[in-house]
Amino acid sequence: MAPAAGSGSPGTGPTGTGRGAAVTVKDIARVAGVSPMTVSRVLSGGKNVRPALREHVERVVAEVGYHRNENARSLRPGHRSGLVGVMITNIANPYYAGVGTTNEDGDLERQLLSDFLGRQVEGLVVVPVGSDADRFLPERLAGVPLVLASRTVEGVPSDAVLIDDVRGAHDAVSQMLDEGHRRIAFLGNAVTVSTGRRRLAGFRAALEERGLAVDDGLVVFGLQEAAASEAATRDLLALDDPPTAIFAANNRISVGVLRALSQLAARSGGAGVPRLFAFDSFDFADMAPVPLSVIDHDPVELGRASARMLLARLDGSADDRPAQVVELPVHIVHH
Amino acid sequence: MAPAAGSGSPGTGPTGTGRGAAVTVKDIARVAGVSPMTVSRVLSGGKNVRPALREHVERVVAEVGYHRNENARSLRPGHRSGLVGVMITNIANPYYAGVGTTNEDGDLERQLLSDFLGRQVEGLVVVPVGSDADRFLPERLAGVPLVLASRTVEGVPSDAVLIDDVRGAHDAVSQMLDEGHRRIAFLGNAVTVSTGRRRLAGFRAALEERGLAVDDGLVVFGLQEAAASEAATRDLLALDDPPTAIFAANNRISVGVLRALSQLAARSGGAGVPRLFAFDSFDFADMAPVPLSVIDHDPVELGRASARMLLARLDGSADDRPAQVVELPVHIVHH
DNA sequence: CTGTTAGCGCTTTCAT
DNA sequence: ATGAAAGCGCTAACAG
Known about the structure:
The structure is a homodimer.
Chain A: H1 25-32, H2 36-43, H3 51-64, H4 70-73, E1 84-87, H5 106-118, E2 123-126, E3 146-149, E4 159-163, H6 165-178, E5 184-187, H7 194-209, E6 219-220, H8 226-237, E7 245-248, H9 251-268, E8 275-279, E9 293-296, H10 299-314, E10 325-328, E11 331-334
Parallel strand pairs in A: 2-3, 3-4, 4-10, 5-6, 5-7, 7-8, 8-9
Antiparallel strand pairs in A: 9-11
Helix pairs in contact in A: 1-2, 1-3, 6-7, 8-9
The structure holds a DNA duplex.
């Protein structure tokens, strides 16, 4: 809770809502027993600083969790902000998809996080890439409130808005079992991602609830792209004893599965196509070439709930409430 | 080229690459003959400033094209940056669609533009909402280089990366004509958007090239959402003499058209379903429930080309080259 | 109502 | 190799 500052830590007095004042070069300088200028030099690469001193300052910087104030920095004449504004009319349009993003890249996430803090953001909403908790610890975030959206990270004591992954997967699999299916495949994304783990948990629970074992040969993990899940589906269909039903753990995976299934359907005239339950909806789910059930939820509500929780932290109205995890409901739609 | 500053304009001397130094409150104060504080007060709402003086200052601000430096502003203690960092793993995933964006909103565009400039962005890549050129004029942008992507705005002398809308529409319609279609409908988005106009131009050209007239009853404009184009399609199909072919001017429109057509196909068993050519591709285009041809292009290349042009402006390597419009090729894919 | 002073966090310049 | 001073653009706080 308290910022991890050293003894006689600077600027940590009661500041209204309780968020500590930002740590500055001056603070670092005082703690390290040097001048602000030396700190600045260390921060800019350590040229012209005695190695021992440099290391000392670096240690203090790391301990205190300092983030350079990029706004102040960009005030200096001649300095480049490094910012480029990009405006597109509508993120919702998949058309803008390929224009430029780095996919599920943990290093980029850490870097971006640091940059955001340096630019004095007051709050963060993050769909985390992986399972590295360190970067999300309060002391690393300079007290900036964080809401994890859609996915959690174990060991991070922040607010989170999730969807009810476990129940969604559980209910979907239960329905397949009700329909008589016994060989049900699970196609999932990276195990490091909480949604993947939670959805698998729901999958397992539904089977175990009825005393059925999970066939590990029908559980595939680590599918990041549609192409991978299409290939995985093809492999499953080629088994001697192929699955009669498939659970696709997210919509990127579903796209690949549908590709494979529609080709099978075209060849077989629709015979022998596995039953498909897909987590998350997508355009044209209602026009899928094969029967399809979707475990859906309201993404707008996800955004809204995240914003609400963040705002409550920002305006202080949630100051004394411990970290809260909300799970949004899912519903199953049959197409 | 030269910033539209008044007589004896401040800080406009040769500054290396030619981008003028930013206009500051001091500059405004000097030109207006008041103190910086008065300017600051005017900028913050004009409380405690004599009305006449306030108006005078406001006029100077408007003329010079001043943008408040939000970075300097956020340096003051107690000031809130107003920034919230949002990180998602992958914009390309349509799942994040609904999380939070304002769609095709011109006012938001202007506001965002101003905010970007205030935050000292060094360059801009914009997919413009409408046809208002003013906000994109160089003097309004404080000399910050701009690249328009995908759409242009008439009267804006900036770099632009477009796709070959005219040729794409022309070739698509020509193919439909080759197939023997004579009643071809055009479903388009807002007329204020250049892509809509350009694609209609290609549509017209293809018909006129063969001495055929455009039937205005088959031309629909202003379709912003899939629901609207679905309804428009239904209306067209209900005509006494319905179109035998449809040109859908973008992918949101295509979604609606496909919905209407797939329902028709389900009822009729596939008979009497119009031929469809759709501009822009989308997930599952290859699995459409009815025959479909797509006028496609590479969105990644659009992003890359935009970035390239902007960087050339930023590093000065394009300093003496006039504004350039690039048109990326399109290709037609039959599914 | 208007102006002056001071200082936010940082780094460039100029001593030491 | 280190530090002191100064100032980037802006605006509270305090004169006037």
